[in-house]
Amino acid sequence: MNEEDACNQCGSTDFTLEDDGRTYCANGHDQERGIATAEDDADFGRQGRLFKKKDIKSKTRISKVLRGAKAHQLYLQAWQLILWKQCYILVHQKALPPELWTVVRNLWILWLDKLEARLHDPLASFSGPDQEANQDSDSDPHATSGAETDNEEHPTVAKKDYPGPTLIDTVVLIYLSTLLLRQFLPLQTLHAWLTNSTIPYIRAIRHIPHDMRSRLPSEYHHSFDPLGIPSPDTLQLAVYRRSKMFHTYFGMETPSLNQNLLLMHYIREMALPIEVYSMARQLGRILGFTLSYHDDEENRRNVKGHPRRAATSYPEAQAISMTIVATKILFPFKPASENRHDISATTSNTMFQMNWDAWQDAKTTFDTAMHQLETINGTRLKPGSEINVTEQDVLTMTGDQLDQYMDWFQQTWTEQTASTVGAEGDQSGPNNNRQDSFRSQTSEQENVNSVDQTILNLFPLEDLDSTRKTDHASQQEQDSRLETQRTALLDQRIMEVQSSLHPLHLPPPAVAATTSNPNLSRESAHMSNESMPRPEIHQTFYAEAARIACLSEAALERAIVRTEDLVEKWRKEKIREEVMGRADELDEHEQLDTEQQAPGSET
């Protein structure tokens, strides 16, 4: 007998199949043979196919877009690519030294070391490039100097909270590197290169390869696609804060700006007399302006203990305010109402008087001639003005201007992925890979792209890449020729202003002291716009100074007012010292007379 037919517990071989379908032995032990079932009589004679329901497996769709630390790492790589392209253009087209990229790379390595927590910790808190950009511009550039604070950097900040780079920081690192290399590069020149698209900034995302771009999250796309050129105040603030960041975290002292070259640059660009140079330098020594981002004068704190920026925190704001105040001292706009300060450097009573009407005429002539050169007698758009074109401007454009604008639009906003095709819609071009770039998309998207390609083939575009390659050398020659012509026009403007100067005979100091009103100069210096509107020449002068110094007119006026306040404070201090010195001399004379009379009284 087979042992499997016996009960495992009692050895009984007598089994019974109960109604519940289970098998039990004679002693009631369950044999655990399962439930016995019988075929249903209703299924007798069934014919046809038997269909089984398939198990639906949930398909997990893997996204191409990266998230977290990997996305931030890819963003930094794309940011570094834009930085390299900017340096390459400046070295090979703008004659900056080849060491520029070495210094920029070293600064970037220092900064990148502080971002290590974000690259390795997926859970590291990251506010995103947009929020970091908002942190960099949280202070209103048009606010008063007393309310402007810098609470962004702190020595005890956590590693994961170090500020990350934004697109404007590429330009900032380049500018700081030129300062470290002792290269004279005004910030206004760098801002002009951004406006003219000489270096990548507008739609910088188009310079990122498609493989990298497709894996970046949308917030990073927005960071690489700014809506416009940063304002001068925004650029000044970004340079100031990054210089402060490197000083706080790494102890790096940003070199001071070259005062001699910068003052001469301002005086020459504004066609001012050379006497302004010596007076501006004298004001710099008096006020303690060193044209540095780390002046001792700026180490002030507000009520919360945060560093407070003044209107002259920016070095170029110091330089231009010194130049303008020196001009107002030597050549006031209103000689009849403004008191001329006593200049100790003059050895005679003869000075020059500025003919501001001649200065205005010379500037108008210079601007008109430059506009004719830049626009080729009005047939072309001014370089860098394409981004500011409005609907009204289009109605008055010539055919060449429209072609220039459309070429700029094609280069800036369209994707150069499809080949140049004929008007008949021929798609046999060798570079026609628009469909290949969308193979990873769904079939519906592929159909849409196919329709888009068919429509695009009806409106063929010229290949601008080949045109730029052939016109690159001629463009450099044209830029060089334009710069030469601009220098000649500027020299002519300076000669016209210099020839308009005529001697002014001042009264002797003793006579001037008895007839002058000491409060008249102070009142005119702080005359508000509401009490008396500025003359046209005054407005033109301030506007040109703000443009050259890469500042807004509001920021320039605040810097001038602060500089005049410091000059007035120094003047009062000198008067107080003179008065106190004279009082001490009188006391000494009285004491000496008393001592001389004392022996005679005893006798």
UniProtKB/TrEMBL annotation:
What residue spans carry the region label Disordered? 126-161, 419-482, 513-532, 579-603
Q: Which GO terms describe its molecular function?
A: RNA polymerase I core promoter sequence-specific DNA binding; zinc ion binding
Q: Which cell locations does it reside in?
A: Nucleus, Nucleolus
Q: Which UniProt keywords apply?
A: DNA-binding, Metal-binding, Nucleus, Transcription, Transcription regulation, Zinc, Zinc-finger
Q: In this protein, which residues make up the domain named RRN7-type?
A: 5-32
**Which residues does the UniProt record annotate as the domain Rrn7/TAF1B C-terminal cyclin?**
229-413
- GO:BP terms for this protein? nucleolar large rRNA transcription by RNA polymerase I
The protein, known as: Uncharacterized protein
